[in-house]
Amino acid sequence: MSGSASNSAQGPVLVVDYGAQYAQLIARRVREAQVYSEVVPHDTPVEEIQRRNPAAVVLSGGPSSVYADGAPQVDPALFEAGVPVFGICYGFQAMTSALGGTVEHTGTREYGRTELEVSGDGGTLHAEMPGHHPVWMSHGDSVSKAPEGFTVTAATKDTPVAAFESVERQLAGVQYHPEVVHSPHGQEVLRRFLHDIAKVRPQWTTSSIVDDTVAAIREQVGERRAICALSGGVDSAVAAALVHRAIGDQLTCVFVDHGLLRAGERAQVERDFVAATGVRLVTIDAADRFLGELAGVTDPEQKRKIIGREFIRVFEQAARDLQAEAGESGEHIDFLVQGTLYPDVVESGGGSGAANIKSHHNVGGLPDDLQFELVEPLRALFKDEVRRVGLELGLPETIVHRQPFPGPGLGIRIIGEVTADRLETLRAADAIAREELTAAGLDRDIWQCPVVLLADVRSVGVQGDGRTYGHPVVLRPVSSEDAMTADWTRLPYDVLERISTRITNEVAEVNRVTLDVTSKPPGTIEWE
Ligand code: XMP
Question: GMPS ATP-PPase domain: which residues (predicted)?
């Protein structure tokens, strides 16, 4: 299943990406205003944009100056196309140039929190907002003169034209970043552009996503059969639940227990997920096989490769077995369900493309004798939408709000060789950290909190009457919106103390608990 799950004749809002990190965030905010949106590259020709019949276009911020050599420009034809357009930051300036206004190097840069002064009655975008309120700025050039026929609705100390609009032409823009949380009225401004200026109907709701996706899956799969690998994670669980809602027992799920899971995860899949969905599930117990293959291996990339390879082999065999069973009744399994998300689609869809820092493993590269068509019901969705869909489908909170957990599991959270004993030690320490974070009500404040076992390091301690020579563990609590960047979470000292005391008391091999206070970049979230 490809393309959007957009839900009516109303086309998507297209967010034109000028190369800053903000385009995806803008697309998410547009969806929070209940309007379906997609990101497109800045060199998309106007004819292509028109062909998509967009409900509106948003020009995103970008790192460049409109005067820089090779700076991406906006084709003025866009403004003659009858499509409502909203310009943000760089997009605001590019729009100004294309429409005959003036952008200048004023020499004053505004960066970070800035006070916005609403002009006059604030127009449609800023009406009835506080006369002075904070917004987030990040620009060197400024608009000094709005294009002919536009009303200026806000300024700052250093920027005479910080927002303008022409309600009649359905064109508007702001110099600041309305999409970031540091602009507290930004979401309302974006909503007003979409609903009040562009007249886009708010139809993108969780129940419409479920209905449209279920219909699309039914159409794709028909009477045929599908298979889905469950990892225990949110994405595969929600993908499987959607496909199950669409085709019922034509779907079989396979759960490979590679022995690198955290405490309780297998039960979560076998008991809670099955209870919530009624899905047909086959569990493959492959812990010994994975441990055997990992024996003696310390290099993290090698671990990832081995785990990825073995996972595919085990899954392949399960698929063949199911295929053989299905074959007896004359039914072939034609489809493989994958939990690919929209950010993966945008990021692999070209553009500059992020460097492959770690080889993230997915079920892919299956051999030729297992040819599946892909069903990717989450291809159009962001993570927060996936979670809402999961709740709408009745999945338990424990699954829907589960922290992200890497495919190679605890295998990449043991620094050194992976052994059964070390896994047991880490599993126990990790369970304590999770329990205490949950008890303190902090689950929603952290993105994830890996616990890392420094298995090749020993440190001296005193426990009871004796000297110990145990291992340290590292707590790595991080806050993040998308795992691309992250900050270390300032956990309360009393919570850290409880985690530390319990781990050192209850987990025999661990005599030291340390805290990782590195942001990303420069540190990655996982240690390996
Ligand atoms: P890093 O460590 O690169 O992690 O900052 C970013 C996010 O990706 C997860 N992660 C992985 N997920 N296979 C996965 O499926 C992997 O090999 C892997 N490595 C990191 C990590 O948990 C974080 O959410």
Answer: 204-402
